[in-house]
Amino acid sequence: MLMDRLAVDPKDHPVILTEPSLHNKEHRLKITAFLFEKYQVPALYISKSSVLSAFSCSRSTALVLESGANSTYAVPVHDGYALQTSMLKFDIGGNYLTDVVAKTLAAKNIKIIPRYAFRKKMADGQPVIVENPSPLTTPSFEDFATREIIRDIKESLLSLTVEAAMEVTDAKPTHYDLPDGTRVDLEADAKKIPELMFTAVPDVGGFVGIQKMASESIARADLDIRKDLYNNIVVSGGNTLVAGFVERVQKLVPEVTLPNVRVKVVAHMPTERRFSAWIGGSILSSLGSFQQMWMSKQEFEEHGAIMIERKCA
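Above: the chain's sequence. Below: its structure in token form.
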């Protein structure tokens, strides 16, 4: 992929990788050996995605709230290091909300037909949809195509208000036109579904809302840095792109903390937020002081893959 898609020779370029915030030593050693042995990279650095997200917002100390496709993390970062003992992770994210949208559509008896699986014909002067599944597709591809439409519905219609969705009983209808012309109307569900990120979810054990994740994670950190963490809450990840997400975090976190605690939430614009870790990695690798942090190929040959644990804490 490096040579075919990026048109670069990995032997000529140091590589910086991101990894999940929850440390996995075995995976880190495998990817280190793979890159040095197969691709012959001259140098390597591996950093936690939460740390890079903090760097992307010009913070070396921050609480990073990451919510992606499958998981949501609350990660205290202090002086560029993710505090593993204070970190929280729950298996709820964008895919969970996509599943809820799919169930909502099913309850409304709305059938999703991928664009390739139907054709239009005229009957009595009116266009009529006729299902025409392709014999060349597999059930797994059909599931994928259907889920992509549902994901687009989620990203197009879901939004949050500063107040809880239960207070927005007269939410205006929101519409989405399916490939076959059917109009989807989620109505108040467009406001209620993303509320799951801020409430207790029975089938996600222990999860009681991302705002309480933030408060509990900070409470696990040293007392001396808690003020700085509250004052630098960084929001990142594709699942946080729901309209109003950042504003809701800013409103709810102070409600679950001690009185008189100043809370400040920072985040990139939506177009950049899903790439926060990439932006942070770009900033980090361009620093002059970073050049001594690389793990070189010579160090790999002398000490083995375990050296990455010392170079990249």
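The mean pLDDT is 88.
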